[in-house]
Amino acid sequence: MLSTLVRQVQTLVRYRALIGSLVSRELKARYRGSVLGFVWSFVNPLLLLATYGLVFTYMLPVRRSPDTDPYFVFLFCGILPWTWFSSSLLESAGVLISSGNLIKKVLFPAEVLPVVTVLANLCHFAFGLPILVAVLVWSGHLSASALLAVIPMLVQLVLTLGLALFISALTVHFRDIANILGHVLHLWFFSTPVLYAYADVPALQPLLRLNPMTHVMIGYQEALFFGAFGHWRGLLAALVVALVAFAAGAWLFERLRDTLAEEV
Amino acid sequence: MSAPAVVASDVSKVYRRFLHKNQWKTLKSALLTGSLLSDLKPDETFTALDSVSFEVPKGCTFAVIGENGSGKSTLLKLVAGITRPTRGTLTVDGRISALIELGAGFHPEISGRENVVINGIMLGLSREEVERRFDEIVDFAELRPFIDAPVKTYSSGMYMRLGFAVAIHVDPDVLLVDEVLAVGDEAFTRKCLDKIGEFRRRGRTIVLVTHSLGLAEKMCDEIAWLRRGRLVEKGDAKRVVDAYLTYVAGGEEALLAAEHGAPRAVEGGTAAPETAPGEPEPGAGGYREGRWGSREIEITEVALCDDRGRARHVYAHGEALHVTLGVRAAEPVEDFVFGIGIFTADGTSVYGTNTHVEDHVPVAFSGDGEVRFEIASLDLVEGTYLIDVASHRRDGTPYDYHRGLYSFRVKSRVKDVGVWRPRHAWRFTGVRITPPEPRPELDLRDEAGS
């Protein structure tokens, strides 16, 4: 298991030039032909934020402590990384199938494709960060601990890569996954403290603790919003889970690799 | 001789037949053993390649021929490393570039320029290498004015040209080509062939899958013939093409016999002219075997024989060839022309004539007759040639047109090239040169074909 993990990382390092150019192609191609173009990278998270903000402030107000005021800012800290996570996984489900002619007709390292998906979405996440920083400055929440947000980011990257490898390879065999994945991610979203603070739901905490994204999310919120980063143990546990997920994803991909060209 | 560029030993490739109920089984066995197939019964699988072994020496141009579904493309994919053999091993020495599907990695939304860079990197170049070759690629594809437009606006010909240009400029040690030479117009096809020829001269290895036997015979040093996943024959290009043609001709005769009963029993009245061929010397384009016509004068028998009247299919160059047509008209006919055409194996016309262009004036014909076309000397280079015979009206309306149904082969000890061998001699003045040892002429008179 460890050796597959190492080999997978080596492969990805070897193909870094390819991955780099594919990511930039992905970014260029995404908004080609739209009027706003690249601006969508900034507008998308803002619109999502506005929707959730309106719904959970006015229509279905969440029971929450005043710690999370202003709620929009709190929400922003969680929505942005969650969008990276969920769109990476949703896109990786279809990525091998939609690039079938690459896998079938060209000698091409297939694992590059889900990785490119995750990294392209990481870039969109990064484009949203300046807005987040601006908002944090405006609301007076920005502190030096914001730099520590890089730690939950790394944990999330490893976890997302592992899940993306896993999902992309398995979806080739079971197209059903693409259908069910959206619902799973929805449930997962509500089981992760994005809309509410972890501290506000004491009854659910034992359950939420099992979710690695809970710890990642708390990490972001502490670093960015609360300005007091201290969730080391939870993040360490999440990192272990993320590494296991990555190794499992790499192992599954390796096992199914030969079948991909035939099944796509 | 140096080490071979490609070595296949006992290579088999088994695919599973597509059945939904097998999905769990194949996934389970893929996870447990890394193989898709171990849980499947033999009737749930399909053997695309069966214990194929061969070597391609460095610098060799190697073609794979065979009917559709014979496993040619599967073999090429295995050599390219896109799929792995189920059994056996396959090793390739050096950088591979596969022209299997041109422009497979192009993204329609971004410009040709960006696609060239990304495609080049996909095919194994570094970014600097692509940038160094960029101008050459664009000029080769003849797309300079369009290179900054998104690829989705390209015509399919432009798309293919760009794909070909990138793939060929990867400068591989082993080039794999799968029937992609039919890209673009004639001029571009010639350019592609020139480029492949340049590869040959520089001592690179080429593995080619093709249906064009003429191309294979002209370009390749060695040919492998696959049939239903098995290697039938491998070796000298001409020999294998000849064996394959003999096999195909046999298959066609069997097919014709099955359709119409014995050739003699063909009755008139089933005119099905796909085209309306005039003189029996049409151009090379669209040459396809077949038989059509209204059968008012039916060609009941065609015999190829030498000047001693012995039926043969293989001739030494310079020998005589007589083509004898048995003809029959149920009703009296007054407007008729008999014609003959000779073609190379790839459909290029060598010669064509008929009684009308040679000013014979038809008078009347009914009942049974015989028409003989006598060639005094076959001044042709070695190769396989196909014959058209026809009876038709003076305006070209066919009575009975047999296209490419008969073939003969010319053999020679001299490895000259082209089609026509004029009677010739070399004379030297002031040049010291040793003339060849006198060799006995090829005598094929006793290995007469059936």
Supply database-style keywords.
heterodimer, A: 264 residues, mainly alpha, globular, B: 450 residues, alpha/beta, Rossmann fold, 8 helices, 18 strands
Form type of chain B:
globular
Q: What is the CATH-assigned architecture of the largest domain in chain B?
A: 3-Layer(aba) Sandwich
Biggest sheet details of chain A: none
Radius of gyration of chain B: 27 Å
Distance between the termini of chain A: 26 Å
What is the CATH homology-level superfamily of the largest domain in chain B? P-loop containing nucleotide triphosphate hydrolases
Q: CATH topology of the largest domain in chain B, what is it called?
A: Rossmann fold
Work out the number of β strands of chain A.
Answer: 0
Brief sketch in words of this structure:
The complex is a heterodimer of chains A (264) and B (450). With 264 residues, chain A is mainly alpha-helical. Chain A has helices spanning 2-14, 16-30, 40-59, 71-98, 100-105, 112-139, 150-173, 176-190, 205-208, 212-226, 232-263.
Describe this structure in words.
- The complex is a heterodimer of chains A (264) and B (450).
- Chain A is built from eleven helices and no strands.
- Chain A is mostly helical and 264 residues long.
- In chain A, helix 7 (150-173) packs parallel to helix 11.
- The longest helix of chain A is centred in the C-terminal third of the chain and has 32 residues, at 232-263.
- In chain A, 42% of the residues are buried.
- The model of chain A has no long low-confidence stretch (mean pLDDT 89).
- Chain B has 450 residues and is of the alpha/beta class.
- Chain B folds into two domains: 6-251, P-loop containing nucleotide triphosphate hydrolases (Rossmann fold), CATH 3.40.50; 266-411, abc- transporter (atp binding component) like domain (Coagulation Factor XIII, Chain A, domain 1).
- Helix content of chain B is 24%, strand content 31%.
- Chain B is built from eight helices and 18 strands.
- In chain B, the strands form four sheets. Chain B has a six-stranded mixed β-sheet, with helices on both faces. In chain B, strands 10, 12, 14, 15, 17 and 18 form a six-stranded mixed β-sheet that branches. Chain B has a three-stranded antiparallel β-sheet with strand order 2-1-4, with helices on one face.
- At the A-B interface, helix 2, helix 5 and helix 11 of A face helix 1 and helix 3 of B.
